Amino acid sequence: MSDVQALMDTSQAPSIKVVAPVLQGNTSVSANGQKTSTTIYGVTTAYAPMRNETVTEGAFFNDQQVNTHARVAVIGPDLATTLFGRTTNLVGQTLRINSQTFTVIGILASKVAHPWAVLTTRPSFLLPPPVTGWSGGRATPWIRSTSRCRCPVGYGASAQISNIMRLRHKVKVGSEDFSVFSQQDILQTATSITGILTIFLGGIAAISLLVGGIGIMNIMLVSVAERTREIGLRKAVGARTRDIMLQFLVESSFLSLMGGLIGILLGWLISLIIGQIAASSGTALNPAVSWNAILLATLFSAAVGLFFGIYPARRASRLEPVEALRYE
Q1: Dist. CA 39–CA 22, nearest whole Å
Q2: How far apart are CA 88 and CA 79, in angstroms?
């Protein structure tokens, strides 16, 4: 908490607006004859507005409860269902965290981040020495800056935090015993992961297109071989080389296009099924297939057929009429 007080000093960190200290770890929680392992967060009143947390029942902590380290807790909806079998009429119920009794004063609104969490005003309960069943313990102050800083590198909120922590912990640059992450850092990490997944999926798609294109080319080569006499007859009655070539290019493109349309239909059905499963489980996921994606897939599938149909079409168009008519 002394680090938190130093970070809230506007003379040292003018870019920092709010600091919400958090101490978290995993331990067992029991109530109503049920027991499970979950994440415990020791927080202050600054945590709820910082993280945009709301409650569907009861209330969040007040200053008096925080200052007196009252044995009260706010729990997530999934944890409430596991322990009590419901998410309503739970204010005043009690639960035990490592043999210590806490009173439930609120139920968190459904949120991906904390469906199983327990928020409590007693961070001292989570501090060493560790108690039986307690695993770890990590201090993470959430910090909101006054505004998006456009100042030179090394003068923003992250730099101010790092400088304060180095002075307080008496460590040098490169040997810090703490880490500072901004939303931009998290966004860059997520973007990097997304980029890797995009390349990976793109590679799979490219291999699939290559295999499909080779398959189309083989089919068209077989078709040329089976229709050699037909090609010779057409050329004998006046069909030009480009007419034969156009015929086989159209056939290969149509074959690929039909496969693409079937794939688009299957993709749409799969996304619809995923959306229905997500809706039934209460997950905020709404898959959507855009018209741009459909148009791109349609054109690309036709282009694949056109590209891999060039060789069979050229081979068919170059057949000599006399030799083709004599072909058995």
Answers
A1: 12
A2: 12
pLDDT tens digit string along 135-149? 455 677 777 776 655
Please give the residue range of the domain that contains residue 52: 2-182
- Bridge pairing between strands 142-145 and 16-20: antiparallel
- Asked if residue 157 and residue 15 are part of one domain, the reply reads yes
**Contacts of residue 114, Cβ cutoff 8 Å, sequence gap at least 6:** 39, 41, 53, 76, 108
Rounded Cα–Cα distance for residues 217 and 311 (Å): 8
Q: Are 109 and 146 found together in one domain? A: yes
Does 143 share its domain with 220? no
Cα–Cα distance measured from residue 154 to residue 247, given in angstroms and rounded to the nearest whole number: 66
Q: Report the distance separating Cα 93 and Cα 106, nearest Å.
A: 10
How many separate domains does the chain show? Answer: 2
Same domain as 176, residue 278? no
Per-residue pLDDT reduced to its tens digit, 214-243: 888 888 888 888 888 888 888 888 888 888
Beta bridge partners of 57: 107
Of 153, 182, 211, which marks where a domain is finished? 182
How is residue 237 written in tokens?
């009655």
